[in-house]
Amino acid sequence: MSHVVRRRPDGRLILLLGALAACGPISIDMYLPSLPSLTLAFGVSSSAAQATLTSFMLGFSFGMLLYGPISDTYGRRPVLLGGIVLYALATIACMLALSIDALVLFRFVQALGAGAAAVLARTIARDAHEPTDAARVLSMLSIVTSIGPLLAPLIGGQLLLLGGWRVVFGLLTLFGVVCALAAFFRIPETWPREKRANAAVLQSFAAYGRLLRDPVVWGYLLCGGMAVASMFAYITATPFVYIEHFRVPAQYYGLLFGLNIVGIMLGNFINTRLVGQLGSLTLISSAARVSSGASLFVALASLTGWGGLWSIVAGLFLVVGVVGLLSANCTTDLMHRYPHNAGAAAALFGAVQLALGALASLAVGQWGGTGPNGMGVTIGVAGLLCYAGRFLLVRLHNRPAPDAAAA
Q: Second label for 399, Cα 20 to 30 Å away, from 80, 83, 239, 290?
């Protein structure tokens, strides 16, 4: 398909793209209640179990960087299909892993495949819709994507009762196969041949250099990336903080986790209603303020013990609730700033988000113990850096992109 007519928001396409984009989040969230049981199954420490999360996020980040420029050169559809097949095969390997080291490796490969679905679902949504609709479409996509993570920890907790952590990967394998079939039959090619890079694929990767020389890009990366870093610090720490430190039963962990997914959905719903009236920069600025303030509150509550569990839960609701709003607007603005390298722009943004998330996850794991202190400090630092990104955007947003002709 060499030509795609841009359209008004298409509910069926958004639903399918949302399911594809959820491959990564579901693969993380359904697995979270299993982390404490992994320490017993393999006889390892909590930090070793958390390494399976860190390796997934690193693989996810690397995969995004790989697929964006390749899709700019060869098209979206073949790259998307190849990534989803890789995801399904690696998930089977995870289910059969016999050691924690093997599971860490297979999770990395699983994430490489999931990265294709994540970055290309958003890029396809941008390709197929009018620019004025793109931020709203991506927020709608995030609402759909949030449904899976909302249910995933609840399902994962119940699967532990049925057959343990391997059953979780069995269900994820089925999900991957269904996604691959749906993408094969329903996803069109949205990047026409006449718009693809004429040069070698290595020159498509050179777009990363142009992007990273732009201080406005760094504003987007810090603003959206540090919000995600806070979220992944929460994702990595709370299975131990909630279940072991605050004694929340594993089967009910998903309820507290789902509360934050509801917050993400609410933030994205607000974005769909207001982005056309207020503009993306205003919403990014306001959401970054909320994220930074709430992050510092979580740090204070974690370090002092003030308010106990519910004080941390309340602060995390605000921290996590604006992540989708920030991601949708930062991604859309960045792709519009570099329209001929939209795949690379989306890939860079997603990869940096996941890399920062992996670093935050690693920081929490290295802190040691099951208390909330490591999570609180990590989230507090991320909040301050998110505000630094907001400062860059507010000051430099109207500056022209460098090498605009080349980009």
A: 290
Query: What residues have CB less than 8 Å from 95, skipping those under 6 apart?
Result: 166, 169, 170, 173
Q: Which residue has the tokens 């790989």?
A: 66
pLDDT tens-digit series, residues 332-370: 888 888 877 777 787 788 778 878 887 888 888 777 666
Reported as half-sphere exposure (CB side, CA atoms, 13 A), residue 380 has a value of 15
Residue 163 CB partners (closer than 8 Å, separation 6+): none
Task: List the beta bridge partners of residue 129.
Answer: 7
Instruction: Report yes or no: 241 and 378 within 8 Å, Cβ to Cβ.
Output: no
Distance, CA of 189 to CA of 169 (rounded, Å): 30
The tokens 């839960």 sit on which residue? 313
Residue among 21, 30, 49 at smallest CA distance from 167: 30
How far apart CA 5 and CA 127 sit, in angstroms, is 9
Q: Which CATH number fits domain 13-193+200-396: 3.90.226.10, 1.20.1250.20, 3.40.640.10, 3.40.50.620?
A: 1.20.1250.20
Give 395's contacts (C-beta < 8 A, 6+ positions apart): none
Residue with tokens 């931020």: 135
Two structure tokens written together for 300: 């204070």
Q: What are the boundaries of each domain within the chain?
A: 13-193+200-396
Tens digit of pLDDT for each residue in 47-62?
Answer: 788 788 888 878 887 8
- CA angle, corner 45, sides to 44 and 48, nearest 5? 85
Phi, psi torsion values for 236, nearest 5 degrees: -70, -40
